[in-house]
């Protein structure tokens, strides 16, 4: 026994253990009584599972949900204008993007109350690409402004047929898609790029990265949650506006109405969509418990699987270009694909960056954009994505 | 009652452990091992079928060369016969649109019809026209050849005259040769890539989106739904929503030759049935397949207890009898006895449901080729 104690390796281990437990004690006296991971429930609302000593929920997801609803409202304005054959106003898109000039109106079907969104101090633009340095972030925000302009321009061609070099509509059966002069369905590019620039980047690269270093020992003034708890909750709210993410979903049938990343995780990550709600619950409980390892494990899971979802969606839509039976189907697939490929620059767990995304897009869209795509360009794009994301 | 509560508790535990979905092999035992099925597909079905097709395509190409060097009615008839044989044989490989054929989009370049006649005429007068874009799909492949050797004149004499025409004859010959050379080249690309792709293919034994089983199920069901059921029967018969219930005789496969649409449809249907049963191309023996896999999973109809694979095979047989009673020429069939076409379509539609819904859910494979996003 005595001999063992002098084993230098064992001493080192003991010392490290001692230090780390000291650290924990110093840094974070648990604010609340711990949550038993086994009591977390897949059938109880996220917000109802974390309470303060008085039994009040410590969860406030509104900063996330409001951004998600703004994203939805912006998308709805653009797509409904297209289906109504009315011109899209780029200035209005920009107002929605920056939440200026009270741009939001009620959309009851999406549970959106315009006045509520107009009154919040959150907005899309400054959340977009916010993990990037200023120059890179500005480049992304300017790109959205350019797309808004493109979309307005293309919308003047509503009612006429598109061809190479000419904006207009492309048909797939009775469905019509508005494309610009390069055959790009701009609304899809905007929508799918926001999945990366807003949802993946703000959730994965901000809230679940640097956001995890926030204070967890005191509550935010006038609130009953810590900043760390709040960061995690905002991430949940930006993914879904449902109390139980994907509740009742099977591989064949999505059980909840989701938008953006929340929907694509179900569609393109069949292996893991059911693990997201548990991961959010467990990570949140780990915050209460100051269980750093478990917190990190769940944050990494969410980030990694969101990124894989986007990579698989990009591959899925490239594949749909191949099986699309007409220009409408093919151009729609490419519009979605471009947005998802653009989003891959935010896949930081897989070392995605702007150079990676832009190189793929430059090759795919060389020449006359959509109109010059062939299977060689598609195969190159697929190969680059598969290699980066380690998909065989 | 007790069973349900115990099992749902178990599921919750698994989800929290985060391990149930990480391992695609979890819960599978050796009887349901998918690798032998993947190996059987590649070694006994895909590669041998491609090789047989390549031989017949080569025979057609040789006849075309002979015809090109000295167009005559006899050489035209030889070319036509070899084109028919190659077109029929092609029906045995069209369903392999995964891996290399997916990469080189073989079906898009081999069999998109109806042929784009004005596009073909344009390309004849512009030899530098880009054949490698979607608009060019129906200007090449078997449907373009159908037009070029059956549709450019009312008699063999006129067709030969199309190619011996003093001003345009040589440009037409060149286009015929270009189309055939492209087909040979593309098929060679696909065949030569299979040996290296084979290793990847048989190693991806999971059931997730990128797995080989997932790819094959999607390719197989898509082919049957869109290209056999709709393309060969449904669209010409006018049953699809897009055709508004009006028969479209000009949309039949081999529109200019006309009397081979039935044999093309029967061959494609038979290829799907044989693939379902894992029938080796050369020996005709059944190997590991969708059928044996479904049987290992004990997939059956809940009320009758009949194996799903039996239900599917019965439906394959029923469809075969419904195609066999059709005339050789679907162009006249849809105009004169469309009810029989619609009956065949309905039987195929039932099969699509078994394959797309029952088979995939029994296998836990997701259909990814449809676009569900509603935008």
Task: State the main characteristics.
heterodimer, A: 392 residues, mainly alpha, two-stranded antiparallel sheet, disordered N terminus, B: 375 residues, 64% helix, 0% strand
Characterise the protein shown here.
The complex is a heterodimer of chains A (392) and B (375). In chain A, strands 1-2 form a two-stranded antiparallel ribbon. Chain A contains 14 helices and two strands, in the order ααααααββαααααααα. In chain A, 55% of the residues lie in helices and 3% in strands. In chain A, a hairpin with a 2-residue loop joins strand 1 (168-172) and strand 2 (175-179). By secondary structure, chain A is mostly helical. With 375 residues, chain B is mainly alpha-helical. Helices cover 64% and strands 0% of the residues of chain B. Chain B is built from 15 helices and no strands. Chain B has helices at 2-17, 35-69, 73-90, 100-103, 106-110, 117-125, 141-151, 156-164, 169-203, 212-237, 261-276, 290-296, 308-324, 330-336, 338-363. In chain B, helix 2 (35-69) packs antiparallel against helix 3 (73-90) and helix 2 runs antiparallel to helix 9 (169-203). Chain B starts with a helix and ends in a 12-residue tail after the last helix. At the A-B interface, helix 9, helix 10, helix 11, helix 12 and helix 14 of A face helix 1 of B.
